[in-house]
Automatic annotation (TrEMBL):
One annotated GO biological process: translation
Subunit structure: Part of the 30S ribosomal subunit. Contacts proteins S4 and S8.
NCBIfam families in UniProt: rpsE_bact (TIGR01021)
Annotated PROSITE patterns: RIBOSOMAL_S5, S5_DSRBD
Origin species: Lyngbya aestuarii BL J
Keyword Ubl conjugation included in the entry's annotation: no
InterPro entries given in the database record: Ribosomal_Su5_D2-typ_SF (IPR020568), Ribosomal_uS5 (IPR000851), Ribosomal_uS5_bac-type (IPR005712), Ribosomal_uS5_C (IPR005324), Ribosomal_uS5_N (IPR013810), Ribosomal_uS5_N_CS (IPR018192), Ribsml_uS5_D2-typ_fold_subgr (IPR014721)
MF annotations from Gene Ontology: rRNA binding; structural constituent of ribosome
Start and end residues of each S5 DRBM domain: 22-85
GO cellular component: cytoplasm; small ribosomal subunit
Presence of the UniProt keyword Ribosomal protein in the record: yes
Record-stated family: Belongs to the universal ribosomal protein uS5 family.
Protein name: Small ribosomal subunit protein uS5
Length: 179
């Protein structure tokens, strides 16, 4: 009986450990109103970015009557929309890439080791939670945090590694270098 209780405790601890590896950062909380028959109905919108700093990141949006509920919904939405980011050995991206989200455009460029994350706003948060440590990024167009975060995720989804390109072309990585 005592062994079963210990095993349950261990399983509970493992579940907590799995949860703690994911980080959540709230980018923006806005008070929004909806005009209804009786007047205005207040609610909150939270933009949350979820990542494990090991190449996985997601952007979520939640709306609720209170801030805590909106953040919880945003975290749940972010975990549903997690993407995989290919990182190089220097914790950068394999190549230059551009992404779009709404009216926002984001340009992401690989950087040398020791550069750090040179980006602003929501794009910086997305890149940091994805595990990128050396990168240059520029927001173009809109300054809306949600659209910029979505543009950064769009750019990161379009990244390809050398092995993926070689596999698509049906040749080896060495042949890819030669061409």
């Amino acid at each position: 009986m005592a062994e079963q209780q210990q095993q349950r405790r261990k399983k509970g601890n493992r579940a907590k450990e799995k949860d703690t590896e994911w980080q959540e950062r709230v980018v923006q909380i806005r008070r929004v109103t909806k005009v209804v028959k009786g007047g205005k109905k207040l609610s909150f919108r939270a933009i949350v970015i979820v990542g494990n700093e090991r190449g996985q990141v997601g952007v979520g949006v939640g709306k609720a009557a209170d801030v805590i509920g909106a953040v919880k919904k945003g975290v749940a939405d972010g975990r549903k929309n997690v993407i995989e980011v290919p990182l190089t050995k220097s914790y950068s991206v394999p190549h230059l890439v551009q992404g779009e989200g709404g009216g926002a455009k984001v340009l992401i460029r690989p950087a040398a080791p020791g550069t750090g994350v040179i980006a602003g706003g929501a794009v910086r948060t997305v890149l940091e939670l994805a595990g990128v440590r050396n990168i240059l990024a520029k927001q173009l167009g809109s300054s809306n945090p949600l659209n910029n975060a979505r543009a950064a995720v769009d750019a990161l989804t379009s990244l390809r590694t050398l092995s993926e390109v070689a596999r698509e072309r049906g040749i080896s990585v060495e042949q890819l270098y030669a061409s």
